[in-house]
Amino acid sequence: MSKRTNRIYYLLLVFVISSLGVLFVLKALEDNIIFFYTPTELLDPKINTEKKIRIGGMVKENSILKLDNLKITFIVTDLENDTPVSYKGILPDLFREGQGVVAEGKFANGFFLADKIIAKHDENYMPYEIFEKK
Amino acid sequence: MIAKIGQLSIFLAFISTILTIVLAILYFKKRDFITDNSVKLASVMQFIFILFSYFVLTYSYVISDFSIINVWQNSHTAKPLIYKITGVWGNHEGSILLWVLILTFMSFLISIFSQEMNKSLKVRVLGIQSLVTLAFLLFIILTSNPFLTQFPIPLNGLGLNPVLQDPGLIIHPPFLYLGYVGFSIVFSFAVAGLLENKIDSKWARWVYPWTMISWSALTIGITIGSWWAYYELGWGGWWFWDPVENVSLLPWLTGTALVHSTMVVRNINSLKSWTVLLSIMTFLFSLLGTFLVRSGILISVHSFAVDPRRGLFMLFILSFFTVSSLIIFAIKSPKPDYLIEYRKLGREGLIILNNLLLVVLCSVVFIGTLYPLLLETISGIKISVGPPYFNITFLPFAFILMFFVPIGPVLNWKKTDLSRLINLILLALIVNGVLIISLYAFIDKKGPILAPFSIALGLWLIAGSLVTIVKRFGLSEEGYIRNITRVRLSKIGSNLAHAGLGVLIVGVTIVTAYETKVDRVFELNEKIELDNFQIQYIGIKPNIGKNYDEIVANFIIYKSEDKIGDISSTKRFYRSQDTMTTEAGIYRYFFSHIYITLSDINEEYVVASISYKPFVKLIWLGGFLMAFGGLVSLVDNKKRLKS
User: What was the pLDDT predicted at A123?
Assistant: First the structure.
């Protein structure tokens, strides 16, 4: 076995594994991207609201409504436009009126049905768009 | 006053660092005047001054000196002492000071120990390490000075974020940083070795212990982080594929590859340029992680407040070391060695496969984590890449890797005939096949169809590694029991680490596939079925802590109508910050947990979420076993250095 053929085998192995990797990655990225919007950006009719998305903003003052059986509705605002959100489940402790929030879910009948509410480590955290407007 | 002393000490460390670099350069110009001892002395001074300033800052926290802005912003007189001490690294300025403390500690260790090391290599290592230290000291002085003062002095501090007042804060950051920063010395060794044109098995023997210690520390750091995020409500559980979690995985993956490839250099003096590149990349990933986390540009659960100036400076440090080290690598890297022949694929062959797969895993995580940042910079579109992406791309390659892990250590270096390798692969296929079939027969719960495959691979890892260990202790070829003292601990260590990976995989798979959960309202004394357990809410009790008030909700756990234990979950209200936290209640049943968190709470009912997490404990046990194995493998390294 000459050195050259040896080298070719190695390069082939590297090539096959890495192109497999790239293929997987591209396919998976395509299917699993979650877009992030603020309430103002959501007004754009081009946005595909069928897919799972994340919305972010502030929880509007006096907008939290607790319904039965762990259900809750509240309004996410970017100080210009609002999006009503409904959620069923346990809320993180840093979820409060007037604080930043990110919700993940889909739209149904004008409501954003969140299946995940994401909190932050830092109680002073605020989505960047809101920070700019303040 | 005390702030001035701390500041002065940082400044003196800065001078010592410049002095170290100047002396190191002079050492190579005028060898007659400058000895390596002066370089070592200057390095030791760096460490002493930084250590002193670190003590000063800690002392200011302990005595609550609110004339220092950093103390005022992050502490409070009513805060428990342990969180005053560890709160030093609970904020940006303090954590960067800890980072520099570990950087100089590494220089200190190199100066004091490693007496037998080649002098000029040692001077170069110290010089390069000091360059890294210099960059971070400038960062502290220009953007993140922990000793800035204010007047008038406030009566009390703003307090530490309550979520951080947790045992996790005491141990998670130091280990994580020890791992991140430990790789800095590996980086310095790599660049120094390139400059010396001495990347060989001797170089690998010197660098191996540092690689292993850093890797073990990083493993412990990530494991504890995972445990902390698991019981802190809202942090996404033990692993969330969150960007901040992912960036800690990047240096871990390349570090794991590095630990293996360094052995190839050490034992058969091959794979040299690749190993140097891995050493450099691992530290660059550590820097990247620090940059991304500290600049706040990642959209993450674990993100901290933002200051753009810091991000820019950190980006500058990252670019400087990336560009300069890669240029040095391009010019000086040792000629590629094609000594390995594929026909005789020995242990090194499987290590190459291991490295290839780990690099693919690393790229997959890298792309998934940084693609959103890239897209946002280019087009302004905000996206996030969630767990499904990582599960699809990461797991298949991880499975291939795990299949081969137990085979590697039983092969010999350089000479394995192909038929032995094929036999071992057949054995692996048979063992896995039998395991998968019996798991399908044995598990009566509904879960993902592929779960038994993953569990089988984990068990294969554990069994394969244990068999190898037993063989080492067991009968020798001549038929008598081997003298215990002749067993090579490094072999035991590596197999323990592999078994740890198996334990981790089993835990991860079982809890992901077979967890059960109920979110609902619990009336007082109502019993609820969960898996094979019954859980009953029996009321609340108020309680007063040092800097918080809390309400404790109590539950009783039954198994087939017998009481087996009780468990409580707590809502805490921190007075000085006006903030609420939830302490999850965890009932330990062998390796499994019953996990309770609260939402609304009052006398008649609670709103709670209760999950049964089977074998979840194996995740962290596996992580610790891996780190432990890594450390065990170092025990007999010293002997080898001398031979």
Answer: 47
